[in-house]
Design a protein that fits this description.
InterPro entries: DNA_helicase_UvrD-like_C (IPR014017), DNA_helicase_UvrD/REP (IPR000212), HRDC-like_sf (IPR010997), HRDC_dom (IPR002121), HRDC_dom_sf (IPR044876), P-loop_NTPase (IPR027417)
Structural class: mainly alpha
Domain HRDC: 108-180
Radius of gyration: 20 Å
Order of helices and strands: EHEHHHHH
Number of strands: 2
CATH topology of the largest domain: Double Stranded RNA Binding Domain
Region (Disordered): 70-100
Organism: Blastococcus brunescens
Number of helices: 6
Strand content: 5-15%
Shape: elongated
Number of domains: 2
Strand order of the largest sheet: 1-2
Protein name: HRDC domain-containing protein
Distance between the termini: 62 Å
């Protein structure tokens, strides 16, 4: 029977298809953000990508998106596992393709104090969850919180980087930090 099979890299082990598309190859997805602090976990993620790539009999397509939404800033780094595999990757990649280090956020007065409190809270929260700090919130999201000082969950949910899950996980804690 002809058709399309959607499978995770985990489920693809031992199977083959004529055509395989491996999508979402950006750092934070492949390798997944939770594995970045453990070298053994990063290597397991590399093995999973190898499994996915070797499932293709005839055609393989690897894809990634440097921006999450149409018109968004193109700041998502391509997966480190593609170095040397994808055109324009690896040590000879043009400088424009390499991730750009973001400038440090500098806020003054009450906004600056709140930003630093939020960073301390984020650090503790990330450490207790064993994830990198940016998984909790990015500096850009903390900056938006510090600048707007939301007082309700509804106001907080309107800020970039805060979806329903993060609102449920961290919303009350963030509002407590904002209120002092």
């Amino acid at each position: 029977m002809q058709g399309v099979t959607l499978a995770s890299m985990h489920a693809a082990k031992g199977l083959e298809w004529d055509v395989v598309f491996v999508v979402g190859l950006v750092d934070g997805v492949v390798p997944i953000a939770q594995s970045l602090s453990r070298p053994d976990a990063v290597e397991e993620e590399r093995r999973l990508l190898y499994v996915a790539i070797t499932r293709a009999r005839e055609h393989l397509s690897l894809s990634w998106s440097l921006g999450r939404n149409p018109g968004a800033k193109r700041a998502r780094p391509r997966s480190r596992f593609l170095d040397g595999l994808a055109p324009g990757s690896g040590p000879t990649a043009p400088a424009a393709r390499r991730p750009v280090k973001r400038p440090k956020v500098v806020l003054e007065g009450e906004a600056g104090e709140l930003f630093e409190r939020l960073r301390a809270w984020r650090s503790e929260t990330a450490q207790s969850a064993s994830v990198p700090a940016y998984v909790v919130f990015t500096d850009a999201t903390l900056q938006a919180i510090a600048e707007t000082r939301p007082s309700t969950l509804r106001e907080l949910s309107g800020l970039p980087g805060i979806g329903a899950r993060k609102l449920d996980l961290y919303g009350e804690d963030v509002l407590a930090a904002v209120s002092g």
